[in-house]
Amino acid sequence: MHTRSRKGAHPSPNPVLQHFNKSVLTNGIRVVSEYIPTVRSVSVGLWIDVGSRDEGAGKNGISHFLEHMVFKGTQRRNMRQIAQSIESIGGYINAFTTKEHTCFYARVLDEHIEKAVDVITDLVKNPVFHPKEITKEKFVVLEELKQIEDDPDDLIHDYLDRVLYFPHPLGEPIIGSSDSIRQIEREDLFTHLNNNYTPDKMVLAAAGNIDHETFVRYAEKYIGSLERRSHTNGQSRLPNRRSKYVEIKKPIQQAYICMGNKTFGIHSKYRYPLLVLNALLGDGMSSRLNQVIREKHGLAYNTYSFVNLLRDTGLFGVYVGTDSEKINKTMDVLHREFEKLQDKPVSRAELRRTISQIKGNMMLGLENMSSRMMRIGSGELYFKKYTTLDTILKKINEVTSEELRSVARKVLDVSKFSTVVFKPSTPLT
Fold first, then answer.
1. pLDDT tens digits, residue range 335-392?
2. Is 87 a catalytic residue?
3. 95: domain range?
4. Residues 409, 277: one domain?
5. Pairing state of beta strands 314-322 and 300-309?
6. Of 168, 189, 223, which residue is a domain's last?
7. Which of 32, 60, 180, 329 has minimal Cβ neighbours within 10 Å of its Cβ?
């Protein structure tokens, strides 16, 4: 396994024998692939290093809206032709936007890799943004926003982000607000596209039964002509917010609790101990939170912890859905579990079980070609290099009980947590 970075599409000896390969087109677009000879499918994704955190004032949601709009037609295909071009060959095409990235991807049989590259690159090279389609899609996205508003266990995470990060763009929801969505104009979309969909911010990734040299040729053919240029967004400073408790009444039947603490970013040396801590505390039925909150005390149907790691910051949080009369008791139980991890070393047996769980989940996830593509695509954007699975597993396996306790003391200090609670506006009858 090794990484090669080179300009152009010059062949190298036995390219298909490489597990992972990397090339750089003459315009600066990085092309990465992972060869899996035991499958007949390929997942292809075009990644752009732009997300909701890169949006200017009053433009919240434009990255997500642009992601929608490119599917409404390009200079070469209308919206029906875009969908049919992949679905007619038994494939699947979609896209997503995160706080930091946008990705357009397709999954196809290996014989249709060229078609996948053609269609995905067409979306970002040649969108037309018809005014009538913009008007219609605003309605669609506003309906999506209403759906989120009707889903409190999803919505509460946006509220927590706002408490922790606002007025930084990280404190805004990825989808935007009803006001910001309505204000998006055609010129705004082209400006966002031209400023951010530049070769220096793009990674074309693929995983599956794919020959890297062939993949590079397709990349050169369909997106190699994109003008070489760069654009850097100014990153606003992250706010230093005090911990906060926010309680909101909503027309719901149960209470929802989401509490979190800002922590280190994805490049931190504490990354792997934090992932182990998260799995031990709240990932799965055997986790401490599930065993104590659900099984022992019967306080909730659903509870978990979560980690979101970004370039320069991160979030460690806990979620619980419970009866409104049991909020205080639930919070007390959560705090006690936090204190235990800070005060008492985790036993060797529990640590080994947790590490085995993480390793197993990672290995099972890599049976999916889309998961593999997303790992190498996002990995290239964050780290500019390929990290082997063996390296990751080794780092996870090396996490010690003392490291776990040290990280727990950094992230589980209750005084630093902010909390959002949704409470029913009327009692259950």
1. 999 999 999 999 999 999 999 999 999 888 888 999 999 999 999 999 999 988 889 9
2. no
3. 15-223
4. yes
5. antiparallel
6. 223
7. 329
